[in-house]
Amino acid sequence: MLDDSVAYVDGPWRHRTIGAAGARFHVAELGDGPLVLFLHGFPQFWWAWRAQLTAVADAGYRAVAADLRGYGASDKPPRGYDLITLAQDAAGLVRALGAADAVVVGHGVGGLVGWTAAVHHPDRVRALAAVAAPHPSRMGRTLVSMGPGARHLLRAQLPVLPEHRLLADGCVRVGDLLREWSGPGWPDEETEKRYRLAFSIPKVSHCSLEYHRWIFRSRWRLDGARYNARMRRPVRVPVLQLHGTEDRACPPHGARASQGMVAGPYRWKGIPGAGHFPHEERPEEVSRALVEWLGGVAVVER
Hints:
Number of helices: 12
Order of helices and strands: EEEHEHEHEHHHHHHEHEHH
Strand content: 15-25%
Radius of gyration: 17 Å
Shape: globular
């Protein structure tokens, strides 16, 4: 296993450690202007947003990509992998970065955190862009047709074995998941290597699976019932949903039902030919759509 130095990938951005919500978070930051906070998904880390960081910063925004709790160079505590705590992390990061609010851009589980923050901390979320991430209240409908995504979620419920499987043979399973969930031709060798190295950081494999365990198990627990009741409140901030048309892990027809949970301005954009990682499979198209949408939401007073 490696230490968390592999999360400090060189580039035009600046690396920082931010204290928020009782934990320390590693972020990569670029640009000045209204804050745009990027939250990655599984099985990735902040580097997933490298293309969008530069595009959004060049467009006049302060782009910050964070390693989520349990990932990369952020803290890896034994608890706190429920969506409510993770939303508190996001809201705390906004405050710790010195901003009143932020446009939150989240992929996969990072998108679920974004949806949750928009409901639980609406004063901190100016707008939300959800990439390959249905509203949590629509997860059940999406799970029915998830295919490989649902199989992974179910397998993650076992103790210990899923962690060992992710770590085996230099985290080869991480590369397998990237290929299974993406469209043809992605990832390239360098990209796969980055994610396999990031999952070799101690505790990342376990912490990442704790997200999936809470998402699944909470459906039959009191904390999950309270969460679901709160999440029935409509999202009142502007929402952009970006989704790969070939996403087998989270099929777009299920995710699009999220519109019914949004009371504010809503926009859906499919990314042709992309699977579950459109921000990396089609980075220019996603960056262009994101920058265009930001122009209408990031500086509008609420």
